[in-house]
UniProtKB/TrEMBL annotation:
This is Acyl-ACP desaturase. The keyword Lipid biosynthesis applies. The lineage of its organism: Bacteria, Bacillati, Actinomycetota, Actinomycetes, Mycobacteriales. Its cofactor is Fe(2+); Fe cation. Pfam families: FA_desaturase_2. Coiled coil: none annotated. It comes from Mycolicibacterium tusciae.
């Protein structure tokens, strides 16, 4: 008999409460303004200064693309809040978590935007235009069930952590790396919370949980995929090795599947087993595609005279 979503919410609430307490004990408060080099700031033309010109930016094109994608993704927080608030509800430990998560996530866009504006890292007018377009469009994950939403955010939080961390490394700026490492730490703690809930859901509804995980692995899309210029920027980011198909497969999907022992579980049957088989076949295809892209990248680097491992 399929466990209903409302019953799962109730049965998982003690797990939510314990993981919220663990999270609060682990998370360290931080202030976005501490990570911004305010002394490097100056007025724009509106206040008698000078407007941005490309020569102002200390970032290369790869770092610009990655930081803009990361920031605009973080900007859509109101939509993400709605997504989890609708599925988890406003009451009890679930509601407390939704509020805590939202408040912590809000720091990310504040800090990254302040850094980029103060250092004149990107065109602030284009950045604001992109923000307006992206936030007006919002984010809608469709009719995901509560379990599908939990599986999705387990993967997405880890993907965001890796993207921020690698962007910091690629920025060439120690301050940007420090800031994005701090943001990535938040994302990792959020991932652990959601990953633990999925693990607990397996004990309650193993087949339904397996189906949810398989669905999200097969249909996964980053939440910023609809932003202006995403496809072009994602290609730049992938070619630079900041976040590509290999990263997604080896650093995001497979660690989650190992943690949940997806392919070792013996409590799966029927639709759950079929979903697992479908996911396994899909992962084989992704592995082939990731290997193909890796070979092309190595050939491109070799043709450019770069070290093969660079």
């Amino acid at each position: 008999m399929t466990t209903t979503q409302s019953a799962l919410l109730t049965e998982l609430e003690p797990v939510v409460e314990s993981n919220l307490n663990r999270h609060l004990a682990s998370a360290k408060p931080w202030n976005p303004h501490d990570y911004v080099p305010w002394s490097r700031g100056r007025d724009f033309a509106f206040l008698g200064g000078e407007d941005w010109v490309p020569e102002d930016s200390p970032l290369d094109d790869v770092a610009k693309a990655a930081m803009v994608v990361n920031l605009l993704t973080e900007d859509n927080l109101p939509s993400y809040h709605r997504e989890i608030a609708v599925r988890f509800g406003p009451d009890g430990a679930w509601g407390q978590w939704v509020g805590q998560w939202t408040a912590e996530e809000a720091r990310h866009s504040i800090a990254i935007r302040d850094y980029l504006i103060v250092t004149r890292g990107v065109d602030p007018v284009a950045l604001e235009e992109g923000r307006m377009i992206h936030m007006k469009a919002g984010y809608d994950s469709g009719d995901k069930s509560m379990l599908e939403a939990l599986a999705y955010v387990s993967f997405q939080e880890l993907a965001t952590r890796i993207s921020h961390r690698n962007t910091g490394k690629a920025s060439g700026c120690p301050l940007a790396e420090q800031l994005l490492t701090r943001v990535a730490t938040d994302e990792n703690l959020h991932m652990v919370f959601y990953r633990n809930l999925v693990d607990a859901a397996f004990d309650i509804a193993p087949n339904e949980t397996m189906k949810a995980i398989a669905h999200e692995v097969i249909h996964f899309q980053m939440p910023g995929s609809a932003m202006p210029g995403f496809a072009d920027n994602a290609l730049v980011i992938a070619k630079a090795g900041i976040y590509d198909l290999r990263s997604h497969l080896d650093d995001v999907v497979r660690p989650g599947l190992r943690f949940w022992r997806v392919f070792e579980r013996d409590d799966i049957d029927g639709e759950g087993a079929r979903a697992r088989d479908e996911m396994a076949a899909f992962l084989d295809l992704v592995e082939d595609r990731a290997s193909h892209y890796e070979r092309r990248r190595q050939e491109r680097l070799a043709g450019a005279g770069a070290p093969a491992g660079g």
